[in-house]
Every structure is written in C-alpha cells, then in structure tokens.
Amino acid sequence: MLMANGVVGETAPQAPPAVAGDAAQQATTLAACETCGELMCRDCLRGCEQCGSRQCPDHLWACKECAADAGRLCLACATLCARCDGVLCAEHARACSVCGDALCAEHALACGECARTLCDAHSRVCVTCQRPLCADHAATCEECGAAMCARDTFACLGCGRRLCRCAAPAACGLCQVEYCVRCLAADAPKVGGKGEAPTCPACRVLEPTTPDDLALLERAVAWEREAQKARDEQPAKGEKAINLRQHWLVGRNAQVSVFVNRGVGRQVVYVVAPDGAVVHIERKGWLG
Question: Quick count: other Cβ atoms within 10 Å of Cβ 27?
Fold first, then answer.
C-alpha cells in the first residue's frame, strides 16, 4: 500500500468473510413463540401443559386452582372464569348448566337439591337455609315472594298456600294442626279468654255433616286402621271405635276437612285429607 510519503507499507488485516454455516447455526438455536412470533432461544421457550405448543414466558399462564409447580397453559388452552377472569385448566373449569359460563371453584354454585352447577345469575337462594337452588328446585313463597327449598316450605292446610318462614305457623286451638299466621289471624280478635288460642278457618265454621262427609270420615277410620296394622300397633287402652252414627260436625279448609265429635267430658277430632288419609287425630277426655 502506498503511503503519503511515498513509502510502501503493509496492507491492514481484513476480517475474514462470514461463513454461511455460522448463520445457519444461529438460526437453529432460535425459535418463534407460537402466539406472538417473537424469536427466542429454545431454552427460553416452554411447552403448554395441555397441547405442548412452544410459547414465550409472556404467553403462558398458570391455572389458579392447580398446584404452584404445575405446568402452564397457552392462550388457546386456558379458560377464563366469567366472574373473576382467573385462568383455569380443562380439569378445573366448571360450566353453568344454564348459560354455559365458565366458572372457578370460588364462583361456581351447586344446587342444594340436585347439585347442578350454576352461576350467580341463574341460581336462587333459599331464604331459610341459604342453599343455592336451580329453577327446577326453587319454589316461591306465595306471601313474600322469597325463594325456598322443598324442606323449608310450609304448605298451609288452611289456605293451601306454599310459604316460607314468614308463615310463622302456629297450632289451631281446636284441631291442633299448624296453620299460617294469616289463617289464624282472622280469629285472633274473637279470642278473649285466658289461655285461648285462635282457631283455623274450618274449626271456626263447624256444621252438621252430610252423607258425603260421613263417607269421607269412614274412609279415614279405615285408613287409620290399616296404618296401625302396617306399624304393628294395637289401639290404645280404652280407645273405642269411632261411631259414625254419633253427631259429628265438620269444617272445611283448603286442603283438609276437620271432623269434631263432642260429648260430656270428651272430644275427638279427625283432620282428614280429600283421599281419606288421616293428617291428625286429637282426643280429649275418656277417649284419650
């Protein structure tokens, strides 16, 4: 090389040209995240626990209900809870049986009667026991409109309504069957004696029986006799057979008829369903 002073000098060393094999080697050590496409070394990519796809750390998520050391999920395999956006794997994702929303354990509800999975929008809660209920197993109180389950439903025999705890049931002063507060409240102003209790609608309007009434009472007596046999019970000592020729009075509630027979120092009351089933028997005096 000719220098400025005319002296010939040595040529500066040049970098060796790149070898095609080096670029190929670098390319083989990088791979793209299957979600965002970012190139990373293969050691930094991780496989999705569910489908095995290779992902960068930013595109893998842990299931909120799996163990801390469990594998991660890619975007395609992760399910989000519809209420909290928590990540769920296929094993831990629950679906509302009505709308299909994915739910985590914290936000999934189970019907207290049939165990169907429900979200908060498609469940009702029993006002008494606080259990979640599906539409098939939630009844509505006919007094206050609250939801109630079967075991916490009070079916009033006086008015025929299905009620929750707002029914405040109490026993009729005559037949001793429990009725709702509305059925008994109508009689409350008429009760003035000490120790007296309000009576149900049927016991307030007792009247002489008709032949059809006596036929129902006869079925009730036969029903009770068969029930005693089934329970392998003997009639109580001193208990006498019901004499249908005696003077009976009857009152009618929405769901039952109340039969009353009175005499000197005695009283017997039969509460009977329309099919002849005996709901309750109350005896006082020498009959009981």
Answer: 10
